[in-house]
Specification:
This protein is α/β, with parallel strands linked by helices. It contains 23 helices and ten strands. β8 (489-493), α21 (502-517) and β9 (521-525) form a beta-alpha-beta unit. α4 (85-94) runs antiparallel to α11 (255-287), α5 runs antiparallel to α12 (293-309) and α17 (376-385) packs antiparallel against α18.
């Protein structure tokens, strides 16, 4: 994977990076991939509206203006942008108690959230903050998406059973479902099971078979022919036809409203940033293509701006939809443009037919989406390889399920940063020794081994900063005080040190004084030039240029010669 060097040159907004150059020999494959995406994604995005709490038509709108805008302004040739379960769940959680679910006010606020998410994305581009995606660890992201999957799947049980359901939060929803089991509609359950069987069965045969589309078409035919509404099955009902109107959301754009929605929009921004960047990177690496995170931020920002203007909800880079296109042979945004054109035809001519759709069908589709998000294999892998990170992922999952999606993503950010700090808070430092067979090799500090009698070479394996400065001081003094032989020189191997903050500076100054009182000379080796300059400034009048050596062998030679030529 290579990153686009043009991204560093200024504010120029490149166009059609994901489309050009067009490979005419692959044009048929791109169109087929776009048709396949439409067949699979249209039922899926209609299902996402059940998560977001918005009208069904808004799911189709996510495949229209937002998808087209990213195709024009994004850099990734593969990333598919549209409705996503994680951001839809955050939307629903953030608007609880603010407006009635599905109302005009609710939809308008969903548009405002899309605007705010767009503002965060474009601001991140202006400030060059694309690197923030790296701060949401893979383990935490697995835990977060698993929690979303559990919450989404459990939230669809009522629709699959044909009961009213209701309640805020996972616990209340499950409790209400159990209380209403006596009201279960047998026809709704049958529909749900058949839909699940078709989708799961088609995937096992071939992922190119549009199982969701087959299930939807079959359900529409059965609903019309068997008059399922008369059997107590709830249908979607009338869906407006035509293209969306481009306009600002009709809300009171007050400071208080914006302030109330900002935390939810920021949570969406973090998920969009992390999930989209991870997906773009994966496919750019797979095909060794040019890729610019900053350009994608602009594309994602404009896509969400288009979502807000076209009466739909926030959109995100979708790993599942991206894989759908890739599996179908699509390798550019031409496939996504094809999907947009198909969506236009559906909006103009087929919305009347969709009125016969049983709610149970969408509930079953969304239930499977939730189940697919539950990454049991990923959680097990983390448990085996990094037990501490597993508990971080598990805490994130439980927070999402039992507290809320918005709180879960904010906790995920905090835990990712804490996990990052933890690695540097207690670095695994070492003492270096050598022998004829292994050459230079590291031993635990606790062994207190010496490179030569009276010479200790101590490697610090992280940047020196306030959190690990005390460990630096304690380990150095322990190596000197409890040495098996009196120490004359202590060499600090700085090959892994790329920065020294104020607290660490003060600690080093204090150490030099203490070591001098004990008759120990402090020298340094393999120090980066910028850190070397910083070190000379920190220890002015306490160390000289002669106390810095290029290699460990130079240190040993100088120590053995006590005055041999230094580098």
């Amino acid at each position: 994977m290579t990153r686009d060097p043009d991204a560093e040159k200024g504010p120029r907004i490149p166009l059609l990076q994901g489309v050009l150059p067009i490979d005419r020999s692959a044009l048929t494959s791109e169109i087929v991939a776009g048709l396949t995406l439409a067949a699979l994604a249209i039922p899926e995005v209609m299902g996402y509206t059940r998560i977001a709490g918005t009208p069904v038509i808004t799911g189709l709108y996510t495949l229209l203006v937002p998808m087209a805008l990213f195709a024009v302004f994004g850099s990734s040739r593969h990333l598919v942008v549209g409705a996503d379960s994680a951001t839809a769940a955050i939307l629903a959680a953030g608007l609880v108690g603010v407006a009635a679910t599905g109302s005009d006010e609710y939809l308008a606020l969903a548009g405002v959230l899309a605007f705010l998410a767009a503002a965060f994305l474009i601001l991140a581009r202006v400030l060059g903050l694309g690197f923030l995606a790296d701060f949401l660890s893979r383990a935490v992201l697995v835990g977060f998406l698993t929690g979303v999957g559990v919450q989404v799947a459990l939230g669809q049980i009522a629709g699959m059973l044909g009961v009213p359901g209701g309640g805020h939060g996972t616990i209340q929803q499950v409790t209400n479902d159990l209380r209403q089991l006596g009201q279960t509609n047998g026809t709704a359950i049958t529909i749900s099971l058949v839909v699940l069987a078709i989708i799961v069965g088609s995937k096992r045969i071939s992922r190119r078979i549009p199982g969701p589309l087959i299930a939807v078409v079959g359900a529409l035919v059965a609903s019309w022919a068997l008059d399922l509404e008369a059997r107590g099955v709830h249908l979607l009902g009338a869906i407006p036809s035509g293209l969306p109107h481009i306009a600002l959301p009709q809300v009171d754009w007050s400071f208080d409203l914006i302030q109330r929605l900002v935390p939810t929009a920021f949570a969406m921004f973090v998920v969009i940033l992390a999930q989209s960047a991870a997906t773009s990177r994966a496919y750019a690496a797979r095909y060794n293509e040019r890729f610019s995170e900053d350009t994608d931020l602009v594309g994602l920002g404009l896509a969400n701006l288009g979502a807000g203007l076209s009466g739909t909800f926030v959109v995100n880079g979708s790993p599942t939809k991206t894989q759908m296109v890739d599996s179908a042979g699509g390798h550019s945004q031409l496939a996504q443009i094809t999907t947009t054109l198909v969506t236009v035809l559906v909006l103009l001519f087929l919305t009347g037919t969709l009125a016969y759709m049983p709610d149970a069908v969408l509930s079953a589709i969304v239930f499977l989406i939730g189940v697919e998000l539950i990454d049991v294999a990923g959680m097990r892998k983390i448990f085996v390889q990094r037990r501490s990170e597993f508990w971080v992922a598990a805490i994130t999952t439980l927070t999402v399920v039992f507290v809320g999606v918005e709180q879960g993503i904010l906790l995920a950010i905090v835990l990712s940063l804490v996990d990052h700090v933890r690695h540097g808070y207690r670095p695994k430092n070492a003492v270096l020794v050598r022998d004829a067979a292994k050459g230079w090799h590291a031993e635990p500090v606790a062994t207190r081994k010496q490179a030569e009698p009276g010479l200790v070479i101590y490697r610090f394996t992280h940047s020196m900063y306030y959190a690990n400065a005390e460990q630096l001081s304690n380990e150095v003094l322990d190596l000197v005080t409890h040495a098996p032989a009196p120490v004359s020189w202590l060499c600090l191997d700085g090959s892994a040190v790329d920065d020294v903050d104020f607290t660490a500076e003060e600690t080093l100054q204090s150490l030099v004084g203490v070591l001098r009182e004990k008759g120990v000379r402090l020298v340094a080796a393999q120090v980066r030039e910028d850190v070397r300059v910083q070190g000379r400034r920190i220890l002015d009048r306490q160390v000289s240029e002669d106390d810095f050596y290029e290699t460990l062998d130079d240190v040993v030679a100088a120590y053995e010669g006590r005055g041999a030529a230094r580098s």
